[in-house]
C-alpha cells in the first residue's frame, strides 16, 4: 500500500527502534506501538503499519543499508579463512554464533520495513547464503537454530499473509496475497529449505568447537587440572567409579533436543509450501544421524 510521506525536519527525528547506530533514527521505518506482542513470541520487531512507497527515500535507505550489511557480512566470512593481519580493517568471524548475530540484525530491519517487495528477495538471499556460511564453521546449535526459527517465521508469515503467531495481517497484504511470494519464489524457497535441512544434519554431526567464557570458539576450552604429584595421580587412578560416571541422562536429553531442533528446521514454511505447491505437506524425511 502506498504511503504519504512527509520529510521530518532535522531537529525532530522520528522515534524508532531496531535502528543501527550508524544510521539516524529517521532513516529507517519505526515499529508500530503494539510491537511487544509479536516481539515476545518470535523475537522479531513489529513491522510498520504500511509498506514503504516504491521508489521512496525510505525504501532506498533500507535497500542501501541491507546491501551494505550483507557485503560486510560476506567480507567478514571470507576473512575467517584468511591469515589475520594487524592492519586489517575487517576481521574475520570467529564463530557461527558471531555471524548469526550480524545476520539477525539485518533480518530485523528487513522485517521492520513491512514491505514484501523488500522482505521476499532479501530473506530468500539470506536463506540461500546461510547454507554456505553454515559449512564454514564448527556447529553452534543455539545460534543456528534460533536464526533458522526466525527465518521460518518470516517465510511462513509471508505465505499466509499474516503473522503466524499473532495472526495480525502483514503490511502489504490488506487486499490479499498478491503481494506475497510468486510461484517462482516458492519453488526457490522450497529448494533452499530442503538443502538447508540436509546440511544441518551434516553440520551438527561434526565436533562442536570449544568455547571460552566469552563464547568465542577456537579457544582452549576448559582444561582438566593435572595432579601436582605422584600421590595425587595414584589417588585419581585408584578412585572407584561412581554411579554418576555411568549416567548418560543429560547426554540423552541433549541428543533428543538436537534431533527435535533438526526436524523442526523450516517446518512451518515447508508445510505451507507443500499445501500450495501440492506435494502433500512438504516435510521430507531426513537422516537423523547427528550423534
From TrEMBL:
Residues 14-45 have a biased composition (Low complexity). It holds the Pfam family TFB6. Residues 244-256 have a biased composition (Acidic residues). Residues 1-58, 206-256 are annotated as: Disordered. Coiled coil: none annotated. GO terms for cellular component: transcription factor TFIIH holo complex. This is Meiotic recombination protein DMC1. The lineage of its organism: Eukaryota, Fungi, Dikarya, Ascomycota, Pezizomycotina. InterPro entries: Tfb6.
Amino acid at each position: 500500500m502506498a504511503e504519504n510521506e512527509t520529510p521530518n525536519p532535522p531537529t525532530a527525528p522520528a522515534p524508532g527502534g531496531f535502528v543501527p547506530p550508524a544510521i539516524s533514527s529517521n532513516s529507517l521505518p519505526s515499529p508500530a506501538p503494539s510491537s511487544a506482542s509479536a516481539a515476545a513470541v518470535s523475537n522479531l520487531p513489529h513491522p510498520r503499519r504500511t509498506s514503504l512507497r516504491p521508489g521512496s527515500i525510505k525504501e532506498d535507505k533500507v535497500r542501501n543499508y541491507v546491501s551494505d550489511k550483507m557485503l560486510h557480512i560476506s567480507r567478514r566470512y571470507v576473512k575467517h579463512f584468511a591469515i589475520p593481519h594487524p592492519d586489517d580493517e575487517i576481521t574475520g568471524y570467529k564463530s557461527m554464533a558471531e555471524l548469526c548475530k550480524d545476520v539477525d540484525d539485518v533480518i530485523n530491519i528487513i522485517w521492520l520495513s513491512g514491505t514484501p517487495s523488500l522482505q521476499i528477495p532479501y530473506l530468500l538471499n539470506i536463506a540461500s547464503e546461510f547454507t554456505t556460511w553454515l559449512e564454514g564453521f564448527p556447529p553452534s546449535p543455539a545460534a543456528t537454530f534460533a536464526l533458522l526459527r526466525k527465518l521460518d517465521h518470516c517465510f511462513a508469515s509471508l505465505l499466509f499473509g499474516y503473522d503466524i503467531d499473532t495472526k495480525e495481517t502483514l503490511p502489504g497484504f490488506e487486499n490479499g496475497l498478491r503481494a506475497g511470494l510468486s510461484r517462482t519464489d516458492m519453488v526457490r524457497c522450497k529448494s533452499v529449505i530442503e538443502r538447508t535441512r540436509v546440511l544441518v544434519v551434516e553440520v551438527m554431526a561434526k565436533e562442536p568447537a570449544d568455547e571460552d567464557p566469552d563464547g568465542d570458539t577456537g579457544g582452549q576450552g576448559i582444561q582438566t587440572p593435572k595432579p601436582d604429584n605422584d600421590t595425587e595421580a595414584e589417588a585419581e587412578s585408584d578412585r572407584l567409579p561412581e554411579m554418576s560416571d555411568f549416567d548418560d541422562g543429560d547426554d540423552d536429553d541433549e541428543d533428543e533436543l538436537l534431533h527435535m531442533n533438526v526436524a523442526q528446521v523450516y517446518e512451518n514454511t515447508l508445510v505451507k509450501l507443500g499445501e500450495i505447491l501440492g506435494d502433500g505437506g512438504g516435510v521430507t524425511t531426513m537422516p537423523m544421524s547427528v550423534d
